[in-house]
Design goal:
- The chain is an alpha/beta fold.
- It has two domains: 2-79, Rossmann fold, CATH 3.40.50.1000; 84-174, 2-Layer Sandwich (Hypothetical Protein, Haloacid Dehalogenase-like Hydrolase, Chain: A, domain 2).
- It is 33% helix and 22% strand.
- The protein starts with a strand and ends with a helix.
């Protein structure tokens, strides 16, 4: 098995897989060595960026290991979702501090990867979600009914986020979360 990151490893500065890398991966595949792509990116983006090597059927470990799928049929091999009860705590504590999250979710088959609440999303989330990104969906969060959560993200002042993160670690540890 060979495990490769995308950015700064497999992809060049133009976010492309070089001919040399493509050739080497096909050679490894021909020797029955499984190719695994490990990335912080969501599955949709990782699959799109690895289109050039789809013939070798890489396994894609996406969202920093929260979801693992076979790229040739999108079968989920592993997932690690956030418990909705913990999300409710994080979400409610964030609202008390005027923090509004956007959430990475495992909804690849439903056509979206990110959910958010704020209409002014480009400004609210510092341009993280672009207007032309069609895999984001505005939804009013219902914490206990929000499923398949991979990560909860906030944009704000550094110190405010550090304090919030520290408080969430204490809260989660007190409640037995990992």
């Amino acid at each position: 098995m060979v495990v490769l990151d995308l950015d700064g490893t497999l992809l060049d500065n133009e976010k492309q897989i070089s001919e040399k890398n493509e050739y080497m991966l096909k050679e490894l595949h021909n020797k029955d060595i499984e190719i695994v792509i490990a990335t912080g990116r969501n599955y949709y983006m990782a699959k799109k960026l690895t289109e050039k090597i789809k013939s070798i059927n890489p396994v894609i470990l996406s969202n920093n290991g929260s979801v693992v799928r076979k790229s040739h049929n999108d079968e989920v091999l592993y997932y690690n979702y956030l418990d909705p009860m913990f999300f409710e705590k994080i979400y409610c504590e964030g609202l008390k501090r005027n923090l509004n999250p956007f959430i990475h979710v495992d909804e690849y088959n439903n056509g979206y990867d990110i959910i958010y609440e704020k209409e002014e999303f480009e400004r609210e989330y510092s341009g993280y979600i672009k207007k032309d990104y069609n895999r984001a969906k505005m939804i009013k969060f219902e914490p206990l009914n929000t499923q398949r959560i991979l990560s909860v993200c906030y944009f704000n002042e550094y110190n405010k986020l550090i304090d919030f993160g520290n408080e969430m670690c204490i809260l989660m540890a007190a409640n037995g979360a990992r």
